[in-house]
Amino acid sequence: MNLTGWRTYLVTQSDRSAGRDTEEIVEAAIDGGVDAVQLREKGRSARDRYELGCRLREVTAAAEVPLLVNDRIDLAAAIDADGVHLGQSDLPIEIARERLGSDAIVGCSTSTVAEAEAAEAAGADYLGVGAVYGTASKDVPAEKNGIGTEPVATIADAVEIPVFGIGGITADNVRPVIEAGATGAAVISAITAADDPAAATAALDEVIADAR
Amino acid sequence: MNLTGWRTYLVTQSDRSAGRDTEEIVEAAIDGGVDAVQLREKGRSARDRYELGCRLREVTAAAEVPLLVNDRIDLAAAIDADGVHLGQSDLPIEIARERLGSDAIVGCSTSTVAEAEAAEAAGADYLGVGAVYGTASKDVPAEKNGIGTEPVATIADAVEIPVFGIGGITADNVRPVIEAGATGAAVISAITAADDPAAATAALDEVIADAR
């Protein structure tokens, strides 16, 4: 699966969406030109994620925008998502490939060259690298909260598959991430918490396109 | 899948196993005559559960004891488990059946007749009902912490599939659960925290057999 056309990748998190419905945010991001959407929603039950995922599948399918699911292969299959995004402590990439098939998009979070090379060898279609600028999304140890653009460059050099920067990225700070070699950026708050999520998506997308 | 032969059903939780390996507990429970094992391990990563699950699959397959997985259909498939046990906020039973096939064992946690009837209609093979005596396993609201044997009786009357009591059950208090109509008991601490898990399994099994 060639994902080099992806620039702006929205990761959903309802509790960071300023009280708005996640469907509404996703629709706005689609209007703004988003290239892919990931159902994240940490802290919510599998049933809640499934029900939201079914609704997001309708919205994204109508717009022909790929929908991925964070962590869970079964949930990805249940909502007929296009793929799954796995962290280092999730099920192995090989299992996702086996369960979801060769056409599925399988992404993997990595923060070192060793992790990145292992993920590529295991069949990942893309890598998420971060947290680039630090993020409020996870409780991460201080030393991992904001790795900067240097590891993005090192990892992008080490692998053939696209690399997406993640963590604290906005239209204002995305340029060095792309210049370091990232194909695009995965964001939560830069879109979900924006006053105008469509405009925020378009702004991010424009800077990424320009910086390439 | 007819599970009326199951009496004693071990649910694993490594942090309640007095520092012993879960494989060791499962092997002892098999020696004591356990009828089924569920990989639970709440709070551990999917990767950790997968690695432990692969080891438990070897131990249980060698003894021809069914192995189920709590919550996750993908993990059940990944370790070639015999089935999955779903809670009310997990993915729907129909999804598990679709993904794991007609031979898979699908169980469901229920605490009301409405939930029990819905689970049976959706294709569950058995029900877990509780917490019968209250349990240290979950943070449950006070009013649900210890529903007693009355709901076990009501639910066992309402459905055809086997009902297993769960929550605070030991060899000393299992008799009224079986007399209320439960087929058997699902336990964590009564086996995992016992000085002699094999003897504890055998003791529980003997009371259940006698009370039927």
TrEMBL record, chains A, B:
SUPFAM superfamilies according to UniProt: Thiamin phosphate synthase
Cofactor mode of binding and number, as noted: Binds 1 Mg(2+) ion per subunit.
Pathway: Cofactor biosynthesis; thiamine diphosphate biosynthesis; thiamine phosphate from 4-amino-2-methyl-5-diphosphomethylpyrimidine and 4-methyl-5-(2-phosphoethyl)-thiazole: step 1/1
EC id: 2.5.1.3
Keyword Acetylation carried by entry: no
GO molecular function ontology, one term from the record: magnesium ion binding
Catalysed reactions, as listed in the record: 2-[(2R,5Z)-2-carboxy-4-methylthiazol-5(2H)-ylidene]ethyl phosphate + 4-amino-2-methyl-5-(diphosphooxymethyl)pyrimidine + 2 H(+) = thiamine phosphate + CO2 + diphosphate; 4-methyl-5-(2-phosphooxyethyl)-thiazole + 4-amino-2-methyl-5-(diphosphooxymethyl)pyrimidine + H(+) = thiamine phosphate + diphosphate; 2-(2-carboxy-4-methylthiazol-5-yl)ethyl phosphate + 4-amino-2-methyl-5-(diphosphooxymethyl)pyrimidine + 2 H(+) = thiamine phosphate + CO2 + diphosphate
Database matches in Gene3D superfamilies: Aldolase class I
Cofactor(s) required, per the database record: Mg(2+)
Keyword Nucleus: no
Binding residues annotated for 4-amino-2-methyl-5-(diphosphooxymethyl)pyrimidine, in chain numbering: 38-42, 70, 109, 138
Family annotation (InterPro entries): Aldolase_TIM, ThiamineP_synth_sf, ThiamineP_synth_TenI, TMP_synthase
Alphabetized CDD domains for the sequence: TMP_TenI
Amino acids binding Mg(2+): 71, 90
Positions of 2-[(2R,5Z)-2-carboxy-4-methylthiazol-5(2H)-ylidene]ethyl phosphate binding: 135-137, 168, 188-189
Any single biological process term in GO: thiamine biosynthetic process
Superkingdom to which the source organism belongs: Archaea
Annotated keywords: Magnesium, Metal-binding, Thiamine biosynthesis, Transferase
Residues of the Thiamine phosphate synthase/TenI domain: 9-191
Stated family: Belongs to the thiamine-phosphate synthase family.
Its biological purpose: Condenses 4-methyl-5-(beta-hydroxyethyl)thiazole monophosphate (THZ-P) and 2-methyl-4-amino-5-hydroxymethyl pyrimidine pyrophosphate (HMP-PP) to form thiamine monophosphate (TMP).
Listed name of the protein: Thiamine-phosphate synthase
Organism: Halorubrum laminariae
